[in-house]
Structure formats: structure tokens, C-alpha cells
Amino acid sequence: xxxxxxxxxxxxxPSETLSLLCAVSGYSISSxxxxxxxxxxxxxxxxxxxxxxxxxxxxHNLSLKSRVTISVDTSKNQFSxxxxxxxxxxxxxxxxxxxxxxxxxxxGTLVTVSS
Amino acid sequence: xxxLTQAPSASGTPGQRVTxxxxxxxxxxxxxxxNWYQQLPGTAPKLLIYSNNQRPSGVPxxxxxxxxxxxxxxxxxxxxxxxxxxxxxxxxxxxxxxxxFGGGTKLTVL
Lengths: 115, 110
What we know:
The complex is a heterodimer.
Chain A: E1 3-7, E2 11-12, E3 18-25, E4 35-40, E5 47-52, E6 58-60, E7 68-73, E8 78-83, E9 92-98, E10 109-113
Parallel strand pairs in A: 2-10
Antiparallel strand pairs in A: 1-3, 3-8, 4-5, 4-9, 5-6, 7-8, 9-10
Chain B: E1 9-12, E2 18-23, E3 34-39, E4 46-49, E5 63-68, E6 71-76, E7 85-93, E8 98-101, E9 105-109
Parallel strand pairs in B: 1-9
Antiparallel strand pairs in B: 2-6, 3-4, 3-7, 5-6, 7-8, 7-9
């Protein structure tokens, strides 16, 4: 069974960089599929942030592209998200998931942007 | 403002059949497959339907999906109290070169 687990700080200051890690187990990232990040502000809907292939090829949400960096570490079977210059609008539950059909999800981690 | 449009709420009584709609455009639903997700309160979304009408293993056949033109629908038959959740549609958008989601429909079982 494919399992994903997000980790990272739950509180980030405005203008700083949000950094999250997603550890994958039960499936080798190098075997295929894109892997991605989706977020959900409190009480709101889902928003795709971006996706990455094991080769490093990425796709990003155009509305966030200039602030988003997604990278992959196949040796550790994990991928990461960096979102720079955060504001309160970036407060959300951040999910990592296997992209394509988004069939396997992490439990999500709440990141609050506040001073 | 979501790229895919869903009604914010829907409701039904136990045993009833309800339909949730998702409206898009030629750049997303019109040319790409639609997925549906169920999100129970406080949990991560769960894949319910993929490729317009395919059910992952373990999803009851009470759930079905369809697509016509630039719209898609999720139907739930034999409604049960545990179906009370938020439902989201999603598709790849070729113009935006990215994934787009509907705003979600909150289903209430009366």
C-alpha cells in the first residue's frame, strides 16, 4: 500500500519560506508517476500547487509559480515543497499525493502563517 | 473562483439518489478525464471516481460518474448517512497546463 507522510513547521512567519517534506513508502518514486502538492485553506476548497516527476520535471500552478519550488530526492524516496514570501493567504492544510489520479494522499499538515 | 464550477450544496434523504454536477470548459473537462473525490470532515480527500466513470477498488458501486461535453456528474444511489461529506471534481487543464478543481459540493443527508 502506498503511504505518504508530510512533515514540516506548523508555523511560518510572513515573508519567510514555507518548507515541507513528503516521505513516500510502499512505492518507489523512481518507478514512475508524478507526485504533487495540494493545499486547502481553512473552510475552503482544494488548490493544486504543483507536481514533479522522478526525473525532476515539474509543473506548477501559474498563480503560484514564481514562489514555488518542488524537488525530489529519489535516494530517500521523498519530495519537497518550498513556498517563498508567504502571507496569511498561504495558511492552509498542505497535502502531498501521488499525482495523475491523486489516488494516495498524506494525512495533511496545517501550516499557519503568522508573526 | 474555481475553474470548475460546482453547486456549493446538495442534500438528500437516506435511500435517495442524488447527483452532483461539475461544469468546465473545452480546455479541461472537454478534452480530459474527470476525477471525483470525497472528503469527510477532518480527513484527506479520497479518490472516488477516476477517468470519468471508473471506481477504484473498494469504492461501492453506489457511486458512479459520467461526462458529457464540458460537464461531468457524480451520482450516489441508495444514499447513506456516511455519505455526508464534501465532494470535489478535478481535471487537467491544457490551457493552464495544470490541475484544476471544483469548489466542492457539501452533501447533507437529511
